[in-house]
Amino acid sequence: MTDPVGAIFRQPFAQQVAAFRLRLGNLVPSSAWDDLAGSAQDRGFMVAGAVKADLLADLAAAVERTITEGTGTEAFKRDFRAIVAKRGWTGWTGEDTEAGQAWRMRTIYHTNMRSSFMAGRLAQLRQGKFKYWIYRHGGSNEPRLQHLAWDGLILPSDHPFWVKAFPPNGFGCNCQIFGARTMGGAKRRGGDPSKVLPDDWGQVNPNTGRLDGIGEGWDHAPGGSVADLVQTMAGKTVNWPYAISRAYMDDLPASAQDAHSTAYRNLVSLQDDVRRYAGAVADGRTVAPIRTMGRLSQAHRQRIAEATGQDLDNYHFTLDDSAVRHVLASHGNASEDLRGQFEINQENLALLPRILDQPDSIEAAGTSRAGHSIVRFSRRFGAQIYTVALEIQGNKHRMLVVQSMWGRNSPVRSPI
User: Which residues are in the Phage-Barnase-EndoU-ColicinE5/D-RelE like nuclease domain (predicted)?
Assistant: First the structure.
């Protein structure tokens, strides 16, 4: 079965990423879905029932990755299940049944994808200075009648209707807005000039306190309070996809940067992607020339500064296809036994994010042929010790680039 939400929103765009990342600096503990209301949602991230900071950081990283890198629902589900197990999260709505769990994962994924997408869309529409906006129904199998009634509605972009009814207008709403500079253009985008709002359109339902068709908690334009800032932030992003994966993090507090980056490196989906990336390189398939494994934390900076004297401010761990080819060619065969090492394969390479996130040791290791400093990260997993050599590439790149990786067996010593 296809994933309609993923099909629509899998291709992220700069304004969508900017709109979501504005929320990462304010992780809000909550007991209920409506603890964060209205425009406060534009600058805060919450998941109902998630109250611990590390749990929220993990969930935010999982959602952010689906938005920034377009990884889709299945990757999010794998991450969600792993996060719940790792953090021991219980008592959340839906956990008691398989159907309930599926519903909860789908709701978190869809709500964040939809709201960030439309917040980015709002920024684009305002930037485009379209004279008319057109409301189009999302085509769901069980449509809300009021949303169908608005399908094709053409209104000026500054009409007060958009303040209250810019979609999504409820959980699961897939309605969209298009812009046009002329009435002819509006009609070509599916607008119907004969469709008008009734004179009393602004009266709220006395039973709900909202316009008919607007779900509880949705009576605001997602991203409306930050649309100009979103557009400014989006302008910083160039050279998709790598730059967009690391953009905007300077705007977050240092603690939020660290929490997000650590959570990102420990996502199961990231480790799966590194494994697939290595497999594609091994098979000779075309891959992205470079991928990020998250920003260095403050602890990384301090330890590297102690080892090398260099302060790596705003650096990211990166992996490229040439490093994978080198590792598999130089350390990926049975001859490693002669060096007291074991073979490195795709499964080993999938451990890279975890090795880099929490190394047991960091040490200076000379310079590369290009004259750049090399550092080595080592980490033990059971009886195996992995070492990763990374090159410090400064100036505009600000990358700590994987150069090689090898491993050796070492017996685990029993405590005395």
Answer: 300-408
Encode pLDDT of 185-203 as tens digits. 999 999 999 999 999 898 8
Angstrom distance (rounded) from CA 377 to CA 308: 13
Taking CA atoms, 415 is separated from 382, 386, 412, in Å, by: 14, 22, 9
Containing 392, the helix (H) or strand (E) segment is strand 384-393
The whole-angstrom distance between residue 202's C-alpha and the CA centroid of its chain comes to 36
Query: Taking 80 as the threshold, does the pLDDT of residue 318 lie above it?
Result: yes
Of 315, 294, 318, 320, nearest in space to 305 by CA: 315
Predicted pLDDT at 244 = 54
Residues 368-407 have pLDDT tens digits of: 999 999 999 999 999 999 999 999 998 778 899 999 999 9
Report the DSSP pairing between strands 373-381 and 341-342.
unpaired
Strand stretches in 55-193, DSSP E: 132-136, 154-156, 176-180
179-185 contacts: CB < 8 A, separation 24 or more? Answer: 179/125, 179/128, 179/130, 179/132, 179/133, 179/134, 180/130, 180/131, 180/132, 180/133, 180/134, 180/154, 181/130, 181/131, 181/132, 182/131, 182/132, 183/132, 183/154, 185/132
Q: Whole-angstrom Cα distance, residue 352 to residue 275?
A: 9
Give me the helices (H) in 251-345, please. 254-265, 268-282, 298-308, 321-331
